[in-house]
Specification:
By secondary structure, the chain is mostly beta strands. It has one domain. It contains six helices and 26 strands. The strands form seven sheets. Strands 1, 22, 23, 24 and 25 form a five-stranded antiparallel sheet that branches. The chain has a five-stranded mixed sheet with strand order 8-9-10-11-26, with no helix packed on it. β2 and β3 form a beta hairpin. α1 runs antiparallel to α4. The longest helix is centred in the first third of the chain and has 11 residues. The termini are far apart.
Length: 477
């Protein structure tokens, strides 16, 4: 759809925020009620089918050109059917391959844009070796395909970072530079996994620092929170994921501070970097607190500007879908160069505790006030999506001789279009100057590959798919 707004209102919003900022140029919605998975059976709640389309903005990754991968989370759990499982279902974890077609029109010196999202393929995620299930094993399992699902009881009795656990709550996704695999972060573990982009098979598990592990598991978030004194807060695990433009390092972002660091509502959040080749990890501190609101907010996404500078999306849970009005939706810029690696402190044992960690927090500067930008475009606070969670750069655009970078932001509508609205995608244009003082913007270069559906078909016919035999276990940090 063509997105129009008041320039005067936008300039007024910029003046109020005291910053230069990217400009919203288009928004689009992904229609339809079903995806391309072909799964038709009803889920346990009896409401949503296995192929229900929704939540596509939990994670968003650029795959080159106008191709993007969109990630729904653990599936529909708004309909009450079993509170002992937090109403989660056997929704199979997946990612969606889509085209976000951005078209430019020119009239004199005025440029306008239209964004057309199109769903192309759905890829289901599985392990080639058995997984731990609860009472419901996916009916589509085969002798060598064991699918991940959103049911909260799909775990063994061991700690949360056991990679054999079948429960998966995907929240962040990035594409490898060769275009052949994807990295996905998860709230349940927290985990970071690597999957074959064409088939959906898990290829690698990256071991995360033990400080993130919740040792006592339960099928409800409340029981897990009450049963642990350390580790990630239930349903607030690794929410964001970035990959550096050189394709060598992953950066995971916890949604809220760990239990021992203040827990949900605390300030001292953790950023974890992972060397993809060696599995070596490092930890840094991010302060969730905002001085102007005197509150701390959760972090939803992280995106690499270059090898050491990143954008971080902070938000409240208010807005459309929550029945309230949005207050904070902001993107900040951080730099890990020169920051203290907290995992190496205290003779390598690391440190914990909010006050101990905050002294090492990285500096952050405001890059974009999303709420102000959407307000300026005529979107009221009650209609701003409560869960703006996905963030990715796209292709550059030219307006005459001026080059702009593009930033795509997506929402998680919790599979509830009637309440939380459509699956939306917002496109912003920005220049290097909008980033302020920086080492420079470097976009990831992803090699073009056939779309997942066509590549999988080719592999099955010719036996040419070489990724399947490369599963590996990354060494411990």
């Amino acid at each position: 759809m063509l997105y129009k707004f008041s320039l005067a209102a936008f300039l007024l919003a910029l003046s109020a925020s005291g910053q230069a900022a990217p400009l919203l140029i288009a928004t689009g919605s992904l229609g339809g009620t079903t995806d391309k998975s072909g799964l038709g059976a009803l889920l346990e709640n009896g409401v949503d089918a296995n192929n229900v389309l929704g939540g596509t903005g939990s994670g968003l990754a650029w795959a080159g050109g106008n191709t993007f991968l969109a990630l729904p989370d653990r599936g529909p759990n708004a309909a009450a059917w079993n509170t002992g499982l937090d109403n989660t279902t056997s929704y199979i974890a997946r990612f969606q391959t889509m085209t976000l077609g951005l078209s430019q029109s020119v009239s004199g010196s005025n440029y306008s844009y239209t964004l057309t999202p199109t769903l192309n393929a759905t890829t289901l995620l599985y392990s080639a070796s058995p997984l731990n299930y609860g009472a419901a094993t996916p009916a589509i399992n085969t002798a060598d395909r064991f699918y991940f699902s959103g049911r909260s009881d799909n775990f063994s009795g061991s700690g949360s970072t056991n990679p054999v656990n079948a429960r998966l709550d995907p929240e962040g996704i990035r594409v490898a530079n060769d275009g052949k695999s994807v990295f996905i972060s998860d709230e349940y573990g927290p985990y970071v996994y690597q999957f074959n982009r064409a088939t959906g098979e898990r290829m690698a598990t990256f071991n995360l620092p033990s400080a993130l592990t919740a040792n006592n598991l339960a099928a409800t978030g409340a029981a897990e929170i009450g049963g642990n004194t350390s580790g990630r807060v239930a349903n607030k695990g690794m929410e964001g994921l970035a990959i550096t433009p050189d394709g060598k390092t992953l950066i995971g972002f916890m949604q809220s501070p760990l239990i021992q660091d203040g827990g949900d509502g605390g300030r001292a959040n953790r950023v974890v970097t992972i060397d993809i080749a060696t599995g070596k990890t490092r930890q840094f501190v991010y302060d969730n607190y905002l001085a102007d609101t005197r509150k701390s907010y959760n972090s939803s996404e992280i995106l690499a500007i270059n090898e050491h500078e990143f954008l971080v999306l902070e938000r409240d849970g208010k807005g459309k879908g929550d029945g309230s009005k949005a207050v904070v939706k902001r993107i900040y810029k951080i730099d890990l160069n020169g920051a203290t690696e907290i995992g190496a402190l205290n003779n390598g044992n690391g440190i914990s505790g909010e006050s101990a960690l905050l002294q090492y927090a990285v500096n952050k500067t405001l890059f974009l006030d999303l709420k102000a930008a959407l307000n300026a475009a005529g979107v009221g606070d009650a209609n701003i999506p409560a869960k703006l969670e996905g963030m990715a750069f796209g292709e550059d655009i030219l307006e005459g001789l001026t080059r702009y970078h593009t930033l795509y932001v997506a929402n998680d509508n919790d599979f509830l279009p009637g309440t939380a609205g459509d699956n939306l995608f917002y496109v912003f244009k920005f220049t290097d100057d909008d980033l302020g003082k920086t080492s420079g913007f470097v976009n990831q270069q992803v090699s073009a590959v056939p779309e997942p559906g066509s590549l999988a078909l080719l592999a099955g016919a010719l036996g040419l798919l070489g990724l399947r035999g490369r599963r590996k276990q990354a060494p411990a940090s």
